[in-house]
Design brief:
This protein is mainly alpha-helical. The protein has 2 domains: 83 residues, no CATH class; 71 residues, Winged helix-like DNA-binding domain superfamily/Winged helix DNA-binding domain (Arc Repressor Mutant, subunit A), CATH 1.10.10.10. Helix content is 61%, strand content 6%. It is built from 7 helices and 3 strands, in the order αααβααββαα. A 3-stranded antiparallel beta sheet has the order 1-3-2. A hairpin with a 2-residue loop joins β2 and β3. α1 runs antiparallel to α2, α2 runs antiparallel to α7 and α3 crosses α5. It starts with 21 loop residues before the first helix and ends in a 6-residue tail after the last helix.
Length: 156
């Protein structure tokens, strides 16, 4: 990763100006933060499951496609409320994921076509949890396993 935490003016610097786009700079910042969190958690005797989730989420947001990020968010929400019916609007999801609502609409449509969710006004229904886990990838499984180890009663 090319870039530093701060330049001489005290602001973020993310490499050469010609390659410094918002997306690459943001990804660089997230990777730096993720590396700092990894160091903090790896040097402590017992890792906090909350801090581990923050670390994993930062890496996931920096490295994975929107489809897997949305799938992970839906699965984590499903685990917290213990229901396949999620009372979430696409507007709310867009704010949580840091994307436009139209992006959530398109990606949710792809997940619906794949048969893993159903979307209705103001709610999303998880139809195929295993399929959604496959879309979410390893990030969801890592956080789920860490939370299950720390809080066995919440294991799913």
């Amino acid at each position: 990763m090319k870039g530093t935490l701060c330049n001489s003016t005290g602001s973020w610097s993310c490499g050469e100006p010609e390659t410094n786009t918002k997306g690459t700079c943001l990804r660089s910042r997230i990777l730096v933060i993720s590396n700092v969190l990894w160091f903090v958690t790896s040097t402590s005797k017992k890792q906090s499951p909350g801090l581990a989730q923050v670390q994993q989420t930062a890496a996931c947001n920096a490295l994975h496609a929107m489809e897997s990020r949305l799938a992970r968010w839906l699965l984590q929400t499903r685990d917290r409320i213990d229901s396949d019916v999620l009372p979430l609007t696409q507007e709310f999801l867009s704010q949580m994921l840091g994307v436009r609502r139209t992006t959530v609409t398109l990606v949710a449509g792809q997940l619906e076509q794949a048969g893993v969710i159903q979307t209705r006004r103001g709610r999303i229904v998880v139809v195929d949890r295993k399929g959604l886990e496959d879309v979410a990838g390893e990030c969801y499984a890592i956080v789920r396993d860490q939370m299950s180890a720390a809080l066995p009663e919440t294991a799913h």
